[in-house]
Structure formats: C-alpha cells, structure tokens
Design a protein that fits this description.
The protein has a single domain, classed as Rossmann fold, CATH 3.40.50. About 40% of the residues lie in helices and about 15% in strands. The chain has helices spanning about 30-35, 50-65, 75-90, 110, 120-150, 185-205, 225-235, 250-255, and strands at about 15-20, 40-45, 65-70, 95-100, 150-155, 175, 180, 210-215, 265-270.
Length: about 280
C-alpha cells in the first residue's frame, strides 16, 4: 500500500460540486449539511423560495464551501434545464447529483384517499414530482456529466416502500390534521420506479464512469404522533424510527470515491425492516 494512500480521504468531497434537489426538505437539509461538511460545493434546488437562501448562507458560513440557492420545479422540464444550466455556469460543472425531491399533494384528503377511490389526477400529480422529476433531473445532469467526460455520481432517494409494501395495520389510530393517514399506492409505485430507473441508468452510463445508486430510507421521525411511532417501531428489528441524520452516511458513501466500484445498487437505511 502506498504511503500516500488514505482510506479516510476516499470520503473527501473537496473540489466536487453537488446538485441536490428538495434541499429544504426534512431530509434535504441534513443531506445538504453532510455534503457541505465533506467539502462539496453545493447547488441547492427546491421549489420553495422561502428558506433556501438562508440554508445556503448557513452552509457557506458553517463549512466554508461555495453554496448557491436555485428555485426549481423538478416536474417542469424548462425549470429543470434552466436550473441545471445556471448551476453549471456558476460552478463550472457537476460531479454529484442527489436526486432527492419528492412531493405529496396540495390536497391531503385526496392524497390519503382509499385506493378504490384514488383519482387519476392525484396519481399523476404525485408521479410528476416523484418519478418524472427524477427522470428530468437525471437526464439534464447526466447529459452534462457525459459532456464533461470525467464521470460522476448520481444518487436517488427512494423509500423502503419502494422495496416492500407498508404494513397497513400500523396506521390504525394514526391521524394527521384530523384525517386518517396511510401510505398510498402512488407513493410506493413512484418509489419503486426510482429503483428501476437507477438500475437502467447504472448500466446505460457505466462506460462513461457515471455511477447511479439509490438510498431507500425507512420511517424517519418528523413529528408523527406517538401512536404511529409506537406501531411503526414495533415492526422494526432495531425497535425505533430513524433520526434524519442517520440517513446521511449512505449519501456520503455513494457520493464519494469510497464507492468507486458500486453502481446500480439500493441501500436500505431502515433499521432492519426489510430483513424480517
């Protein structure tokens, strides 16, 4: 082994530029901070304008990296192309894409409706962000990576429910804003589609040294009521829900040279749920 080789340095992202979508989300903020702490310069994309400039400033100040905020609707091809082009112009290229943005609905009654009554309009609204957005971002950034000729890493956020069905019993007695909650079929279908897209792109771009992988988080604490947390945790071998910061390590691994021979894979960060 060369004296200059360092396993620790494999995780160093200094000199890399990362684009992250859904940067202001519950997980997105943690993902962004993790990439910044590892040294990556960041293009933060989110559909919400409120909070994203403050997050960019916080990361610049806290970690001494370049960080720029961009408002972007990942379901809109024009918005995606403009955001990616501006990010490339700002940073000079892209080395990492964290395809992370996801959406639910503007109408929670329709989002949580029973499958038998689920509207096609609601289905398409969720798919437009959760799957179409993944396609559009991967297409735009992947094209840029191919043109650069130096490879890259694309990491997509799926869900444990893209790999398995939810246990519908855990939602009994669980309410949000006065309504019974569930995980609708459109969520599982969109998240499963991400896994398939990842495998396809991993083989499609392998000869271009562009690696494509997926993170599948399990249930993460984000203000759920105690009844839900108890029911969900009872299904987990580790006996609890995840904390948001526990998902970040998988992203840093897949973003870095530590995973240089890993592509087409899905890492479930789920406390052992899929192992039952």
């Amino acid at each position: 082994m060369s004296d200059s080789f360092s396993y620790k340095n494999l995780f160093n992202l200094r000199g890399k530029t990362a684009v992250i979508t859904g940067a202001c989300g519950i997980l997105g903020r943690h993902f962004s901070a993790g990439l910044a702490e590892a040294g990556a310069d960041l293009a933060l994309l989110d559909i919400r304008s409120e909070g994203i400039e403050e997050l960019a400033c916080e990361l610049r100040t806290g970690y001494g990296v370049k960080c720029q905020a961009f408002q972007c609707d990942v379901s809109d091809p024009v918005s995606v192309k403009q955001a990616v082009a501006t990010a490339v112009e700002t940073f000079g290229g892209v080395d990492i894409l964290h395809n992370n943005a996801a959406g639910k609905s503007n109408n929670l009654d329709e989002f949580f409706a029973p499958f038998e009554d689920y509207s096609l309009e609601q289905w398409r609204q969720v798919m437009a962000v959760n799957l179409d957005g993944m396609f559009l971002m991967a297409q735009a950034v992947g094209k840029q990576m191919v043109a650069q000729g130096r490879g890259g890493s694309i990491i997509q956020t799926s869900s444990i429910y893209g790999l398995m069905s939810p246990d519908h019993r855990i939602y009994e007695g669980s309410f949000y804003l006065g309504r019974q909650i569930n995980t609708p079929a459109v969520y599982s279908a969109s998240k499963a589609g991400i896994v398939g897209l990842t495998k396809y792109l991993a083989t499609y771009w392998a000869d271009k040294r562009i690696r494509v992988n997926t993170i599948a988080p399990g249930g993460t604490e984000s203000g759920q009521n105690e009844e839900f947390k108890h029911r969900y945790s009872s299904r987990i071998p580790m006996g609890r829900m995840a904390q948001a910061n526990e998902i970040v390590g998988a992203l840093l691994y897949l973003s870095s040279d530590a995973s240089s021979y890993v592509t087409g894979q899905t890492i479930a960060v789920d406390g052992g749920l899929e192992a039952w």
